[in-house]
């Protein structure tokens, strides 16, 4: 399994023009936390003590590439940048967001937008993986996620 993860990480590094001669990715991006290399569908968001289920049709998810690229999708915008594993979770940086506005009133959409926006530059999030479940805590929110799949299309095309 470690060889497969290392091979996937090297493919991402080579594709990004950052190939190394090492047989494993640099220590700073080792996928040791269990969440790297996967797309995680957000199935519930807890805010202010209230848990709200997030139906799959909203397509809310998090992505963690083994090479340190981070992506997060809310129902309206895609957020992307980088992350660094740190202690009990990770820290984000260089977050850029597509610039689509939302004038609606759907409470699930608004909750998802606010929760995903909490992954602002420099925020530290805790992450706990149990089997195919990931719980991420960012200031004001707890996101419960289900492992959706290994990432086949990361990084995604930049939004237009």
Task: Record keyword descriptors for this entry.
globular; 160 residues; 2 helices; single chain; alpha+beta; Lipocalin; eight-stranded antiparallel beta barrel
Please write out the topology:
Layout: H1 2-15, E1 38-47, E2 50-53, E3 61-64, E4 69-73, E5 78-86, E6 89-97, H2 107-117, E7 124-130, E8 133-138, E9 141-150
Antiparallel strand pairs: 1-2, 1-3, 1-9, 3-4, 4-5, 5-6, 6-7, 7-8, 8-9
Verbal overview:
There is one protein chain. By secondary structure, the chain is of the alpha+beta class. It has one domain (32-150): Lipocalin (Beta Barrel). The chain contains two helices and nine strands; from the N terminus they run αββββββαβββ. The protein has helices spanning 2-15, 107-117, and strands at 38-47, 50-53, 61-64, 69-73, 78-86, 89-97, 124-130, 133-138, 141-150. Residues 1-32 have low confidence and may be disordered.
């Amino acid at each position: 399994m470690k060889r497969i993860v290392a091979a996937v990480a090297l493919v991402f590094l080579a594709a990004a023009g950052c190939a190394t001669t090492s047989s494993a990715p640099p220590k700073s991006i080792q996928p040791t936390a269990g969440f790297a290399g996967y797309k995680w569908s957000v199935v519930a968001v807890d805010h202010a003590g209230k848990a709200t289920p997030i139906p799959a049709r909203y397509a809310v998810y998090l992505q963690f590439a083994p090479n340190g690229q981070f992506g997060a999708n809310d129902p309206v915008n895609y957020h992307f940048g980088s992350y660094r594993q740190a202690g009990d979770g990770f820290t984000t940086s260089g977050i850029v967001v597509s610039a689509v506005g939302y004038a609606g009133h759907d409470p699930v959409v608004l909750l998802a937008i606010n929760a995903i926006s909490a992954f602002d530059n420099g925020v530290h999030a805790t992450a706990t993986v149990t089997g195919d479940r990931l719980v991420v805590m960012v200031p004001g929110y707890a996101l419960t996620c289900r492992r959706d799949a290994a990432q086949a299309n990361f990084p995604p095309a930049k939004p237009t």
